[in-house]
Amino acid sequence: MIDKGKLAEIVGTDNVIFEGRMLEEYARDMSFVPPIKPVCVLKPENAEEVSRIVKLAGETLTPLVPVSSGPPHFRGDAIPGASGAAIVDLSGMKKILHIDRKNRVAMFEPGVTFSELAAAVAEKGLRLNMPLLPRQSKSVVGSLLEREPVLMPKYHWDIADPLACVEVIFGTGEKFRTGAAAGSGTIEEQWAAGSAQKEAAGPSAASWYRLIQGAQGTMGIVTWASARCELIPALEEPFFIGSANLEKILEAVHWMIRLRLVNECLVLNNTNLASITSAHGHGDYTKIKANLHPWILFFNIAAYDFLPDERIIGQKEDMLELAQRLGLEPAKVLAGISADEFLNIIQQPSDEPYWKLRHKGGCHDIAFLANYDDISGMAQAVNISSKAAGFPPTGLGIYLQPIVQGVNCHCEFTLYYNPGDAAETARARNLSVSATRELLSQGAFFSRPYGETTGLIMDRDAATVNALKKIKEIVDPLHIMNPGKLCF
């Protein structure tokens, strides 16, 4: 175990916590992962302190679990996977280091939340390509590292986007910079030379960011990241399309993105749309859901500084022609919900309490990637698994997010349940496993495995597991970085 006095020398006495009640808060989250209490919580304030913590942990073989977001947590990745672990809480590292409007990139530390960064980049005329309604305490770095899908597939060029470069402290205690940031000199010297730390690949031919993303802290601790931003449009005009036919909705999505007609573009089932709008003060959940189509496509047409009116008109004409061909009807208002109001909702983090918790108090996500042609069958398979588990399909929220220029889709099934009801909680837990098994058999790709189903997912790809273990031996030879997660 790390000596308390040595830890205090690194981060200060006030930033070393051994008090029991505080440790209990880090021992569990809202997932089904069994709780394990850490031995202490450390709150570093800069990269140098993080490096010293990692080196000291290596001397005593103390497991380290990095955490950057505030509670509530949902996936079990921030719960220690081994006894005797120390939590490295990065939420106090809140510097926004650089915003470059010309190159549309921002650099920030892991404690910066979406509310904080969105406000800062907006002052420069920029907007974040955000995930759907992140909670107020969500770290932007944490979201980027977990590859959470973003709302504008038009500006999503690679699965890693909008992440650009990172500075990471590996399990050896060594500092490493990826992408364009790996160039010579300090970051300040790079800025002076005109570098923007926007290119993710590198150094050399390697794409190290791909090994750090999705690693759940098992490779190292990221101390800052840079991310691509987008310009704030001069004009925006959002629409809904409701339908009982998911195939038609997905075909509309395909063509709208292929023709580059839309910015924000996502599909929700009526359960999720009602949950979001009722959570943001737009009426009663049950009444809203009863008046909605089973599937709702939301999209936003945007124009920028040059000829914005003409651009909006042209894009609307193309969109209406496409909708007419598919037999779909765009609307500005759906079941009393204004498209303009909904756009304003999703361009901000969620109100408190977090929108997924307002309906029943608990939730569990099953998230994977799929081709458009497979989504309807997979949704039916989850419904069948839901009935078999005794979990009502009406309690399933579904979110479909086109990604990477619309070439495939992030699918997210949210199981809403009452955590105070042991039987209902057990049904949700059983469904999470049975549905994952069925989806795997149908070709779903789980790029972000968490919790109990991790073994089911990782065991299907022995070659990738072996490659990851080889990388782990290089960057964390003592295996102190979040052991027990993924295949480690």
Walk me through this protein's architecture:
The radius of gyration is 23 Å and the shape is globular. The model has no long low-confidence stretch (mean pLDDT 96). The strands form four sheets. Strands 5, 6, 7, 8, 9 and 10 form a six-stranded antiparallel beta sheet that branches. The protein is α+β, with helices and mostly antiparallel strands and 488 residues long. It folds into four domains: 4-89, Uridine Diphospho-n-acetylenolpyruvylglucosamine Reductase, domain 2 (2-Layer Sandwich), CATH 3.30.43.10; 96-231, Uridine Diphospho-n-acetylenolpyruvylglucosamine Reductase, domain 3; 235-346, 2-Layer Sandwich (Alpha-Beta Plaits); 360-458, GMP Synthetase, Chain A, domain 3 (2-Layer Sandwich). The chain contains 17 helices and 18 strands. α1 runs antiparallel to α3 (47-60) and α14 (372-388) packs antiparallel against α15 (422-441).
CATH architecture of the largest domain: 2-Layer Sandwich
CATH third-tier fold name of the largest domain: Uridine Diphospho-n-acetylenolpyruvylglucosamine Reductase, domain 3
- Number of domain units: 4
- Helical proportion, percent range: 25-40%
Calculate the mean pLDDT score and round it.
96
Shape: globular
